Amino acid sequence: MTDYNQRIIAPSLLAADWRIVGDECRRALDAGADWLHLDVMDGHFVDNISFGPQYIRAVRDAVPDAYLDTHLMITRPDHFLDRFLETGVDNITVHVESDHEVAETLGRIREAGVGVGLTLNPSTPVEKVAPFLDLIDLLLVMTVVPGFGGQAFMETETMPKVAQLAQWRAERGLAFHIEVDGGIDARTAPIAASHGANVMVAGTSAFRAPDMAAAIAALRQD
Ligand code: DX5
Ligand code: ZN
Question: Is 70 a member of any domain?
Fold first, then answer.
């Protein structure tokens, strides 16, 4: 049985130095990261373009044993899914707002033996993901409008959703991590945890910290 009080820290490579991405992955893992968060952006679902399957394959080859937590901020996750499944990532999280049959995409990820994640934007009501909670291993609550790192944590719009998801999980006897992503640092991580989140994505606060190990350790504190 997974302990959802066990905090998981997932630095986002979006904030890493891409010139030396292999070293940056190892730096994060040596500094105590549990997962590495991969922010895939298509320039259509969000107003930014980041990287695709080939780059993720390079990350997987650089850190074969790392847990790769993949966040697809793309309009057609169904169309590209096979190419991401082939990269060897550990989970794939898709947006409920994307243009696909959500349950079908989640089923294909499950079928491939990869962790199944679903996410929603700050402006999306939490009811939108309610029908899919028995199909997933992880629910990512975006705590910023997706597309860029370094934005401010959107507490009032998102924490009630985290609390509601934790309540539904308990009431329905379901099993999924609750992940938060965007503006997570030593101040906001405890706020998110107090509402029920246990997976903390940290881009700026981890990769841009003067002491990454101290920054990651601080994300585990209440
Ligand atoms: C934003 C990404 C986040 C972002 C987090 O679209 O999904 O993962 O990289 O960056 P910080 O931690 O800097 O807010
Ligand atoms: Zn992300």
Answer: yes
What is the tally of structural domains in the chain?
Answer: 1
Q: For Cα atoms 187, 1, 220, give the angle at the middle one, nearest 5 degrees.
A: 15
Domain CATH number, residue 129: 3.20.20.70
3 occurs within a structural domain:
no
Asked if residue 146 has its Cβ within 6 Å of ligand 1, the reply is yes
Contact 160, 192 (CB under 8 A): no
| Contacts of residue 11, Cβ cutoff 8 Å, sequence gap at least 6 | 28, 33, 36, 37, 201, 202, 203, 206, 207, 212, 216
Q: What is the pLDDT of residues 55-89, one digit of tens each?
A: 999 999 999 999 999 999 999 999 999 999 999 99
Helix (H, G, I), strand (E, B) or coil at 49: strand
The closest-lying atom of ligand 1 relative to the alpha carbon of residue 204 is 13
Structure tokens at 84: 């991401």
Residues with a catalytic annotation lie at: 39, 181
pTM of the shown model: 0.98
